[in-house]
Amino acid sequence: MARLADYFVLVGYDPGKRGSGDGQGQILQRFPEKDWEDNPFPQGIELFCQPSGWQLFPERNPPTFFVAVLTDINSERHYCACFTFWEAVESPQPQSHARNGEGEEEEEEASSLVQPAQLFAPKSLVLVSRLDHAEVFRNSLGLIYTIYVDGLSVSLENVIGNLLTCTIPITGGAQRTISLGAGDRQVIQTPINDSLPVSSCSVALLFRQLGITNVLFLFCAALTEHKILFLSSSYQRLTDACRALLALMFPLKYSFTYVPILPAQLLEVLSTPTPFIIGVHSIFQSETQELLDVVIADLDGGTVNVPECVHISLLPEPLLQQTREALSMVLDPELEVADLAFPPSTISASSLKMQDKEIRAVFLRLFAQLLQGYRWCLHIIRIHPEPVIRFHKAAFLGQRGLTEDDFLTKVLEGMAFAGFVTERGAPYRPIDLFDELVAYEVKRMKAEEGNKQKILRHIKELAEKLYKNENPYPAVTMHKVQRPTEGCHLRLHQKPFPHLDEGTVQWIIDQATAKLQTAPPAVKAEKKCMVPSGPPIAAILERNGNALANSARRLEVVRNCISYVFENKMLEAKKLFPAVLRAMKGRAARHCLTQELHLHVQQNRAVLDHQQFDFVIRMMNCCLQDCTAMDEHGIAAALLPLVTAFCRKLSPGITQFAYSCVQEHVVWTNIQFWEAMFYCDVQNHIRALYLDSAEENHAEQESAEEPPEAKSALEIASEQLRLWPTMSREKQQELIQKEESTVFSQAIHYANRMSYLLLPLDTSKNRLLRSSGLGDVESVSNSFVTNSIAGSVAESYDTESGFEDAESSDVANSVVRFINRFVDKVCTESGVTNEHLKGLHVMIPDIVQMHIETLDAVHRESKRLPPIQKPKLLRPTLLLGEECVMEGLRVYLMPDGREEGAGGSIGGPPLLPAEGAVFLTTYRIIFKGTPTDPLVGEQVVIRSFPIASLTKEKKISIQAQADQFIQEGLQLRSCTFQLLKIAFDEEVASDSAEIFRKHLHKLRYPQHVRGTFAFTVGQSPKQAMQPKAKEKNPSLRTLSKNLVKNAKRTIGRQYVTRKKYTPPAWEQRGSQHFPEDNEDEISVSEELDRSTLTPSSTMRPSEKMTMTHVVERACCRDYQRLGLGTLSSSLTRSKNEPFRISTVNRMYAICRSYPGLLIVPQSIQDNTIQRISRCYRQSRFPVVCWRNSRTKAVLLRSGGLHGKGVVGLFKSQNAPTPGPSQADSTSLEQEKYLQAVINSMPHYSDAGGRNTLSGFTSAHMSSAGKWGSIRASGRMSSYALNVEIGSRLAGKDLLGTQHNGTPAEPSFLRQHRASLYIIGDKSQLKGVKPDPLQHWEVVPIEVFDVRQVKASFKKLMKACVPGCPSSDPSVAYLRSLEESEWLSQIHKILQISVLVVELLDTGSSVLVSLEDGWDITTQVVSLVQLLSDPYYRTLEGFRLLVEKEWLSFGHRFSHRGAQTLAGQSSGFAPIFLQFLDCVHQIHLQFPMEFEFSQYYLKFLSYHYISNRFRTFLLDSDYERIELGLLYEEKGERKGQQVSKSIWDYIDRLNKKAPIFFNYLYAPEDGEVLRPYSNISNLKVWDYYTEETLSEGPPYDWELAQGQPEPAEEPDRQDTAAPQSKRRIIWPCYDNRSRVEPDAISKLLEELHNLEMELGQVPERWKDTWDKVKASQRTEGRQEGNRTPSSLLMSSGLSHHRRSLGVYLQESGVGSTLNLSLDSDTSSTSTPSSGKPGGRRSTSTLYSQFQMSESENRSYEGSLYKKGAFMKPWKSRWFVLDKTKHQLRYYDSRMDTECKGVIDLAEVESITPGTPTMGAPKTVDEKAFFDLKTTKRVYNFCAQDVQLAQQWIDRIQSCLSDA
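^ thats the sequence. predicted structure below, dont judge the formating
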């Protein structure tokens, strides 16, 4: 029972406090005067009676009533019912007298006067109650007012006394009739269940005022703790609205500031920071404008205003939509039928009261859906003495799939929900409508979704219940309360409200209290029961049905992978692994993983080997990395026991557990996660605690029936709570203690667990993410390193140091702090005693410290472990003499812009990225590894290039794997068209990467050429730095020194300063120079010095020696071949030869970059030469390098002219000169020199008649072979060549045409040809006038300089090997190829060369005099010779050409290749590569004219920059001699030396195998080639684009040959006929020519094998080839017809047809040699199988072995032979061959192809055999015999015993003969 009203208060206007215009109220009387003990009198009532302030009014207002709500300090609500009426006051005047009794008497006197008062003051009657019965209060106060106004004869004191003593039941649906003793009667109904709020009509009114959407906004704002302010001009409506909002929030209770009516004086409360629900009168609207974070609802205007800065999270869809629809069905039923043609007449909304309940029903349903299954996420952690319950928020959100949902997350975090858990979490309590709804009706709601009728029916049912709760008795006896007469408040003579007698009232109250005390206490029987849990969330939410279906396959993959790991099938596991990692994105797969792993843990421990451990760790990490810090799906929770279970032994006594490798996840730093986990575990233990005791009792009974379902913890708790009151005190204490110790032991367990997961493996690094409790998420890496090898610098403090020093460790401290915070929180919440808590705090630092010590040992050991999850590092094979400088650093080779390897759009397997190591050797950088994609994981990927070819190295940062962080890497680019883009593995410390770069740099740019690989090869790198030992052959060394000395002296006097190019003098070479005593073995006098400059007939002995060496040089051999002069011993020569070999430069004094012997005109003396040389750049004066054997025209080369020489040569001779100058005389001599060249030409003496243009055209153009068209091609060509052929031959005009292509001025088209054309650089020959008297002519052309070549090459490299993939590779490639202008440059070189060839062929000599005479000049001169002279198209000739024009004439290989530190700045200029590319273009157009293959050109291209050979080092012969390289004696080469010369190496290889040979070689005699040079005719060289990842570049032959082919199966090991084997060839991986050699190589190889089998000494392939060629020819003749034979040996094709170019690609596809252009001849062989197709040609190939059949077959017959293991018996035709000493077998007698051979030399014994399974049944068992060889045993069986004996005898005799 409760009092209906606690206090009655009379509040009046206080006239004394009227200063500020606003008055104040004062309490005039209150009853009872002393406070109730259980309910003190609330303060500040006078403020709430007049919320808008106490004011006087000029006229009387009708009485008003409203209920204000006050909340006291214990958050109890007091309802203040205020009834206000107005009383007259006399006009204001100062009142000095006391305010109490006398004042009131005066008022009474005054009021008896008749004069009307001008002003009226409010007076309020207030009832204060804790019950909210507004209507009863209105009636009661109305009654008191009526008695006073109408002057009824009832004592007011009695009425008030009765009102204050009236008691009513609080709940239970009682009905009570009360009377206040004035003839009145009221019936009070109490709600059945007081937990449900009472709303009467307020909710319906709120919706009427604001509308559905607005109320939903307010509802969500209130639940998510926003501030809400109601405005209205009616106080009652404010109260109703606030009450309605609270009613809607049921079952949550609002726990913040709640003031339905806020007085004006307290308006500053609105700026409080906490949430609130407050109502304010609308007159204060203006003052609410500046509130920025308050949601304002205007009840009168029907608006809700949400400020910009406030974001209200709305209900999650689809609930929001469903709620809206349900509300509109309730509030606006007409909406449904509004469009019907015949709307039903009867539709109308329910009564307001019913509507109110229906709306509340909608919200009840909403909460039931929102919170469905909440009881499954409650953790009960204590049952006795008080239940302690926690809600697992993360699990709830996760299971509901609403983790992302803002609204629900905020609600669950809010205070209201915390209250909800405390109040409703208890498992044993009375239950109400909500509990039933959420437990039993959720399924129904799910089922009815979308069916409006059913939903509405459900709403009505709920509304009924709610209505019934508020109005349990529908037929109520009517109230009877007197009301005042209408308009009574307007009476003029109204007496003021009388002063009440306190005594009377107090007496009545005392009487009642006494009576209550004697009465027995009314006990409300609370019906407690176990709260039903409802279905678990999973059962309700079958949301993602489809998601589950397609993930079944994924789960299977996860399961398989795990079982493979534990069965140790690592390869299988590795293949499935990426799929598993992808599957881990799904929640189901993560759960599956944790379940599967649980199955593999026995007795809390699972010891794995390293690889298994690694897989498990990687799966766990992948699983965790998608978990949020909340761990809403319980994945981290499920893994927590596992990370302490899986472990591996590092060494005896040291075990590493999985937790040390999965710490990098943010979930471990989240204290809420740990709390939830802790509570969950505690609940399980508590449950076990009570289950055990229960099971002991029930054990007997249960055996009979089925075991019941496992009880949940809440069920057990509710059972215990029910029994609690019945237990004895001791029993209670015992249970409390048990529970407490359970919690305590769990706390210790968790302190350990947390230290496991929070302390990093390497505690020395203060790498704690957790210092502030939570690290920022970004700092957490997902690295999968199982051993944190990555650079742990020092061990953490000494393990013996004890705890004191350890205190300094930040890591330990922050972990201790974190764990302390956790323990404090959970232990206080779960009621652990203080002593226990203190004990825990003492233990935690020790736990952490102990763990740090174990970790130190683990860390030490784990650093020693090889990093296991990574593949073993594969060591590359090295060349002889190549040494590793740096052991492999583990890296990932990343795909670059080339598509082939990455398995992109082109298809093919993804070979990259690959995981392996990068090695640095003295010669190469090598990457060797395996693809990370496990499907190609069996392959080996190798990519390497010579260090010397490195052109660019830059640091990059790349993400090596999708699941890893960005790593530092390097991008290394090589001019062998290779790119290594590597990312260092995290185990590689950054300083190792730095050391790698430093070493690389040191090796790439050695101080001096002696540091390059070609020199250091075979020595250990250290040795290279020590001084050289004394040489064996001093003669050679001293010789080279003399040369050098003399050269040095003379150079001093030279005309041009050439400082830049002299290599550093010996003295500056540090420790490398020779011992001093060598210097003076041959003294060199000054005379010698002079003699070097004068031609001398006698030579010193030392020079003689030089000469013999010089004569051996290539150029000298070539000069003799060309007939350009001989070197007889006396150095005399026949005068009739036009040219002589001059030794003027033998000491390299005149021109250091020229060879020692030069061809000059016979008539020119040596001393003239020295003077002439000064006119030319680098002293490179014109010398002859080739002579056309037919026209005798010569080709000369020189450097460009210096200015002076030009002036003298080309300006008219009689111009006045400024005195006799050297320049003048020189130019005359130069003129003489050129004239001498012209005179040497035989037809020069004729008077030009034959030399006219017309003559030439007719004579030569007819036979001119093939012309490449020289049209203008792009901007590089500075001349347009579209003059007709006649003028094309008149060289000057050809090159002089203007840009626009119009012919030049007619005067140039002279009718005679010049005898000598000088091709010079346009820029040098400015202002040169043609001189009609001269016989030479200058052709100015524009050429590109080295800078342009460099730039173009860089672009070409980027085009062919792009650094990163482009969006449209094919287009990008072509575009960048064009932009590089490389092909334009090649076009230019070819164009000039073809022009020169043409001039030479028509009898004019040509002097090429461009730049310094060693770059483009060399290219042009070499190409001209190659095109004009077939000799240079042979292997030998090409070598000679390169040695002569490139090496001897001083192309600066070292400088252009940037081989040393000095050349680093100048960069790489591929002049020689460009030349080889030109040769390749010509080779493509004339494939039958070259003896060497394309591979030969690639080989040279690769090795001229690789520094493997010494051939292409240094800049000139002079420098080579200076280093003693040039004339190495024959004996020395035989030593241990690795090949120093590339030519020797090529010769040796060529003898072994035909790799450099071109099978199509069938030259025409003396043919001059004229290739097309248009860009459209040029092809990009495949050298630039192809690569073989299986073995690296195929140009280091020993390495490429290294891998043996897989052995064949034993049964077939002796078969002779090849069988077709299919192999898949991957682009960019396999070496195609190896896998599928061209037909001829294949045949030669087979022949070689046959010879080996026959035990003959194999013939050289070349001899065989020549024999075959010869036999082809004779065969062709015998047949009589001259069709070209199948190998195209004949040269009978017309020229036109040959030059179309027949391609035999180096490798491969389409290399059938059926190359005859007439298709009628039979093909030689088919490439796929290699079986001879046409028998005829093959038989000729083997003709030398064919003998007559009879000799061959000494004995033959049929035998059964047992196949190899598990194969059947077969009948075969056997032939015993005495000659070849072998036993062959065939399928049948007629078969010509041998199926197998048994070599008799290998037979050990022959014995009688026994029949085995599957043998022929009919045969006598004595007919079996076995033949035992060294390799295997053959089982035979003859038809009968005699035959068997015969065979045995024959074979025996063969064996004995041998």
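The radius of gyration is 55 Å.
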